[in-house]
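Re: Re: ligand-bound prediction request (bumping)

Still looking for help on this. To restate: I need the protein modeled with S-adenosylmethionine bound, output as structure tokens. Inputs repeated here so nobody has to scroll up.
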Amino acid sequence: MDIINNIKITTQNDKKLLEALDALPANYWDFKADDVREYTHGIHNYPAMMVCPISRNILRIVQEIRPVNTLLDPFMGSGTVVVEGMLANIPQVYGTDINPLALFLSKVKTTRLASANLQSESQRLLERIYQSCEKNRTQINGVDNILHDRYELDLTAKKGWGENAPVYLKKYQEQNNMEIEIPNFKNLGYWFKPRVILLLSLIKSQIQKTEDKDIRDFFFIAFSETIRFVSNRRNGEFKMFRMPAVKVKTFEPDVIREFISILNRNIEKMNAFTERCCQIDCTTKVSIFRNNATILKDIPDGCVDLVITSPPYGDSRTTVAYGEYSRLSLQWLDLDLSEKEIMGIDKSLMGGNKFKNGFKMTIPSRTLQQSLQRLQSVDLERAGDVYSFYLDLEKAISTISRKTRIDGYHFWVVGNRTVKGETLLTDRVIAEVGQRYGMDYLSTIDRNIVNKVMPMQNSPTNQSGKKSATMTNEHIVVLKKRKC
Ligand SMILES: C[S@@+](CC[C@H](N)C(=O)[O-])C[C@H]1O[C@@H](n2cnc3c(N)ncnc32)[C@H](O)[C@@H]1O
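Reply:
Sorry for the wait, this slipped through. Here it is.
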């Protein structure tokens, strides 16, 4: 039986929900003209962010039909759904992810800060930064030329400067009577020029002096966003590709100005968020956990009324590399992570296991089975990657269903990507797998991607320059937890 054509409307609420969705005009879900960066949504970029009006409207529609006491986003990413849960004043909001940058960002985005404190602390921070810049001005401004001329270092090369930046900078500081703590991670010099490293280190050391932890974390998010713009990384891509050497040579970002402008923007957004939460008398309890969505060990069973989530489109290697995107930030921020942990993030995400030599199809989805059969005949290894991703997705669906209360709703926002010419119908797969794990299929809403923060091209081979088009539309799959 085709699940999509066999919708099970069992309660009055299901009927009301479907009527409400059906009554919306075409293109309602595109949100072409909406400000998707308002409040704290806009304080830091993150790959494949969900545009906030999606969750805002789902929450509004569902709340008009039934109370929502507990909301969960098991693939929280930058925390869009969690922020919207607060703006909808949901009593309990859970957000989980594996990527430590996602957790840190979501924590900052959902922690309200009193405007007056934020203003005075940021004023103090900027004064400290200016003073330290003034004190070290000559040494900082001269470092690129001196390292290049005196030590004959090629500042664009991986060997020499690229690999040993901390050693050279330490020597430089000793000779020039400077004392700024420099981070020590692999290929620091490959990704940053000497002046940029000194300035970032200076900002970091001044942020560390902020006593209030929540304000300090907020400053670190502005710092993290600055890192991306002043690194030698090619902007506009989520994978770690560096600018060509000729560009690195002449790249001289204004680190301090970049940081201040991001900080000021973020302060405005935080003030607007805090004010809005005050207006609505927000009493939401936000609980953020570093949990694998296939396990969700910290979320109680049977407690969730509503799930709104956008899982990854596929494995990190061939779709969006969340770990790679976050790497430089995590290497600079002191989040108590080893280099091994940081480098291993992408492998720990959905589809990280390899099935190089084939697999036995066990996932309860006829649609996926047909796609995998076709894919296997073209490329066994790629078929294995796809299988690995959907195997994790199956585990996640089963776990999330277990966390959901009877009659609770799920809204899965997904894109159907194409691998080796085979379009993988993730929306159907979710409906079919959900059916096996106690979730009835209710509807699929289609939307055009007009303002989502994601590349319209990806790099399926993981090689710089080789790209193919990614999807330009998404589907929101609506499921309902049935009575056992
Ligand atoms: C499409 S993004 C979510 C974006 C999010 N809706 C937002 O607005 O920022 C998918 C997220 O799933 C996370 N992820 C991947 N595999 C995971 C797993 N097994 N458990 C939990 N989170 C996972 C990634 O780290 C990433 O943050």
